[in-house]
Known about the structure:
Elements: E1 4-9, H1 14-32, H2 40-47, E2 58-65, E3 68-78, E4 81-89, H3 98-112, E5 117-122, H4 127-135, E6 139-140, E7 152-157
Parallel strand pairs: 4-5
Antiparallel strand pairs: 1-2, 2-3, 3-4, 5-7, 6-7
Helix pairs in contact: 1-2
Amino acid sequence: MTGWTTGLARPDDLDAGVLLREYLAEMVRRWYGRPERPGEVDAALAEMPSDDLAPPTGLLVLACRDGRPAGCAGLRWQPGWAELTRVYVRPARRGAGGGAALLAAVEAYAGDAGADRIRLDTRADLVEARALYARHGYREIPAFTAGPYAQHWFEKSLPARVDDTSGAR
């Protein structure tokens, strides 16, 4: 994962907004098997907004490669667990550890927030994403959401966190 750094951003930050639009543009292209049409990304943003990927309802992690924005991943807080969403690495940066860097970051944030597991849903056509999740310990589980884009469901248990005052972790 050399060259990757991660940090928190707000969905309305410039770099975050660009990456989220790129993510949704790719989702539109892959879903329909054609280039996105004018207005489709805006419609997708309206249908599936990302504004809840900020405190107190969630967070958004940006990954940078060699100091330049290259990917993102979001968490939505649920009672006791976190939902992973918007995992995206720019095509030119794929295969270089960005997905792993994002997963490590969101898992650390989720654990620090007290979540005992991370769950996600994804589409059948996102085979690379499904392989990434499986490589990093996510296992397929029965459906826990419904919707036209939820076709596979995954979960990963997070290690129990020990109170920092004890010095153990």
